[in-house]
Queue: 3 jobs
Job 1
Amino acid sequence: MHGAQLTDAASTPPDPMRIEMNKLLLIIGLLSLAACGTNKPITSYSEPPVVPIVVDPRAQQMSRNEVIHAVGDCESNGLRAVPIISKRMISGMLSDIVIDVQCMPRLRWFSN
């Protein structure tokens, strides 16, 4: 009886959906291996690229009090405050300064 079950299972035709899935997996596997085998050399930089610093003298820094009031205005209207940051060279060091505060809609997952 046990041998009869083995012969019945071997004589049934394979499922066409399973054959198509096996072909698809084989093609995806071969393509992924082919994509990894490239002859293009990897470029590495010995030093970082030089990027000039553009300084706009017309951009004035907001005072701490102005930033606090702008954030308060945004929050009182049900919006979120987004500070616009610029860089300023102070005593030879780059510092972030707030030059503007924009009110943007609240994101769904941050709303109260």
Job 2
Amino acid sequence: MSVYTFSTKLMAYTLDEYGKVQGFTQRSTGNNIARPGSLAFYLLPGVQQNPYPEAVHPKAVKCVGNEVTVHFQQVRFTLLVQSFEDHLRFTIVDQQPQGVDYGRFVVGACELQEDN
């Protein structure tokens, strides 16, 4: 299994080849505060639906350098990841194909664990 880590001075954000967050780790303590199974990227179809429909998981996530490509059934996104001292920035730089109605693309998500 491939894993990818993006780091700042304060934290490390690690995800796998399917877009699941493996770690949101505080560097000072080594504590991973990510809830197991959190998705780093997903689609929410049906923008006007309430309650929200189920999230659509990526088929694959690939990282090369500071670019991440997120593949779904009908659309893929390429993001530029920039690491700063205190935060990460994810910027969408490409979508293929254009004009696909996918709802909303959620980026850089992570559910946090409750304190034990």
Job 3
Amino acid sequence: MINTETPQGITNELNRMASELEKARASLLRRETMLGSLNRAAIALLSPKDTAFDETLTEGVSIITEIAPIDRASISRNIEKPDGLYATQIYRWNKKAGAALTPLAELRENSY
């Protein structure tokens, strides 16, 4: 139960409210930053360019990793065959390298 009948009780309640308000403000600021970065990444990925597929993806992934705790990314393509569905890694990115890496051979045409 909150005691707002004493000066100390009122102070405690105001401090609690200020703390919650600060948490909400920080959350909204983070959300706004993330949305802005995702928008920049979408523009980078969807804008027509004369650059290679890997370069375009690396640009978009790099923007996203500025605000998200991501240290690697991978994109696979599904391949439908008569005997089932397969996946092949077509893009691999690593934060330490800061660039696209060669897709792994062991992630080529793996069945589901």
